[in-house]
Amino acid sequence: MSTHDHHDHDHGHRHEHDHGEASELSETELRVRALQTILIEKGYTDPAALDAIVETYETRIGPHIGARIVARAWTDPAFREALLADASKAATPFGYHGKVGDHLVAVENTPERHNMVVCTLCSCYPWDVLGLPPVWYKSFAYRSRTVKEPRAVLREFGVTVPEQAEIRVWDSTAEVRYMVLPERPAGTEGWSEEKLAGLVTRDSMIGTGLPRSPAGEGA
Question: Is residue 197 helix, strand or coil?
Fold first, then answer.
């Protein structure tokens, strides 16, 4: 298991880190469309099959499985312990079809520790639990800066971690994939698992975001 422990590494300066950089998105979209065109023209697949794959990851798998896992951990202490002990085993029953969560490790955010996930070598990511990875997760800027200056990167995502809290960065690999168990938002006592799952975001399970606020959601 490869981990990197980092505290405050801002080094007195801040680099620009545009997670929605137009040039990067444009290049990625062009590459995807070119690949789709080649596959279709060669007869290896058809548009309907590609659309079905994307639709499955966005609406049936997506971050929805991960959100259900987090909501269960928030409401069931025994499941929380099982998830932290063996996330692959705990995640299995949540699969849409078949097993999910292979090589999965869950790390828990607390008031004293904030966890972030990165893949420094490429883009290892638990697709079957969190769905399609965000474009910025694969970017060199995110992969390199998260290790060197995680607190600064978090600020650029709009997340401020108290100075006294530790920031721990986990390096995903082909053998180990990580997901973050975020802190349960205050004011959600008595909420159902389904309602709690609606507060869980993909970014909160990567560590670059927080769950949605319960304000306005009702009890």
Answer: helix
User: Residue 44's domain spans which residues?
Assistant: 21-61
Active site residue ranges: 119, 122-124
46 and 108 in a common domain: no
* 112 and 40 in a common domain: no
Q: Is 201 helix (H, G, I), strand (E, B) or coil?
A: coil
Q: Is the pLDDT of residue 201 over 80?
A: yes
Instruction: List the one residue out of 84, 115, 89 whose CA is nearest residue 102.
Output: 89
CA pair distance 40, 206, nearest whole angstrom: 33
The span from the CA of 54 to the CA of 123, in Å, is 18
pLDDT digits (tens, 9 = 90+) for 63-112: 789 999 999 999 999 999 999 999 999 999 998 655 678 899 999 999 99
Amino acid residing at 121:
L
pLDDT at residue 51, as a whole number? 63
Q: Which element (helix H / strand E) includes 167?
A: strand 166-171
CATH code assigned at 84 = 3.90.330.10
Q: In whole angstroms, what is the distance from residue 147 CA to residue 145 CA?
A: 5
Burial of 12 (0-12, 13-18, 19+ CB in 10 A): exposed
| 78 lies in the same domain as 184 | yes
Domain assignment present for residue 131? The answer is yes
When divided into structural domains, the chain yields a total of 2
